[in-house]
Amino acid sequence: MSKTIHHLSHTDLDGYSCQLIMKYTPYTLFNYNANYGAEVKQTLELILQNINKDDKSATILITDLNLTADESRWLNMEIIKLNENKKDITLLLLDHHGTGEDSAQKYPWYYLDTSRCATKITYDYAKEHFNLDAPSWMEKFVNIVNAVDLWKMEEVENFEYGKVCMRLISEARELNKIMFPEADNSYKISLLHEATKYIDKTDAPIILDDNIHMLKKTFFKKEQNDTIDNLSTKYIVSLLGEAKAEKTIYYKGYKGYLSYGVGNTSIVGNGFLLTYPEYDFIIDVSYRGTLSLRANNGVNVALISKEWTGGGGHPNAAGGRIIGFKEQYRYDLVKQQIEKIINEKEAVAGELEYKKEV
Fold first, then answer.
1. What residues contact residue 314 under an 8 Å CB cut-off, 6+ apart?
2. CB 145 within 8 A of CB 117
């Protein structure tokens, strides 16, 4: 087993719980999360890119996701090619979805067991193969996830607690996993770790339910208390600032910031522009290709929207929609689409009207 594991897991309670389990192994972990469909392959392509940048041996661990026959064939060939190029890459998939049976029969790295949830499979496998240093709460937590993921209503205590944990993850929407994959992953795993502290309390599901709001605020709170909207906005603006080098764009000499799927642009966008006044505008692209633009008197974003999409609005707040936008699950692929538009529009003569504060 290599010392580095690239761990791809699902985006639900079972998926994140697998990654919580793996935190208690002595390996260097890089976590990724994906839902089914094109998102799985795009994320696997990213993992392969990251492995190629590094000369170290590595293991790709996939949990709570079944691969299609085409995905399995493609990934298996990619690993063979890496190892033929003197890489030392191993592959392991631990899953419980019966739709992966064909791949499980064909590939030795594909471990399938429909009788246990992926968290329980990962827990049992890690005890035997990954030097798992399991804390006292872990086995009970694993049984909780197993009860709710397999819908074992007869295990009343575990099932009820699992339902609250399931909602804890499904409603943790404050961060965007495409824009902030590491922070979003840390947020959700942190919430689950905090949830383990209530397992043995009387009326544990009710107590956890009562404390969900507090657990979320605790993650975002750095100094003084505030509303969760204000705390999370400040946190998001900080994350945007940390990623300026990657997410800055330029249009006709104006400096902009490109975000994807963040939403709440009136609050987050204006908060960003006030914190980083060197930027003339910020654009948030939704998963369907709608644009939300904000400025702080640095440039007329209504004109940018008109030039890009035929949209419009006000000088400091505008919107539009990119016809033919292709939804992506990686930020770099979104930026490629936007930069293509920028290059095309900059080739067209014309100057933006704008005003700056004196």
1. 301, 302
2. yes
What pTM was computed for the model? 0.92
Integer Cα distance of 101 and 99 in angstroms = 6
- CATH placement of domain 244-346: 3.10.310.30
25-55 pLDDT, tens digit each? 999 999 999 999 899 999 999 999 999 988 7
Please give the CATH architecture assigned to the domain spanning 4-220.
Alpha-Beta Complex (3.90)
Tokens read off for 177: 């996993």
What Å distances lie between residue 241 and 168, 177, 237, 279, CA to CA?
A: 28, 16, 6, 11
Calpha distance 207→216 (Å, rounded):
15
Contact between residue 109 and residue 91 where contact means Cβ atoms under 8 Å apart: yes
Residue 330: which residues within 8 A CB-CB, separation 6 or more? 42, 43, 46, 178
Residue range 250-299, pLDDT digits in tens: 999 999 999 999 887 888 999 999 999 999 999 999 999 999 999 999 99
Report residue 60: phi and psi, to 5°: -95, 120
Strand partners, 61: 7, 92
Q: Calculate the alpha carbon distances from 84 to 78, 88, 123 in Å.
A: 10, 9, 32
Tokens of 191: 């919430």
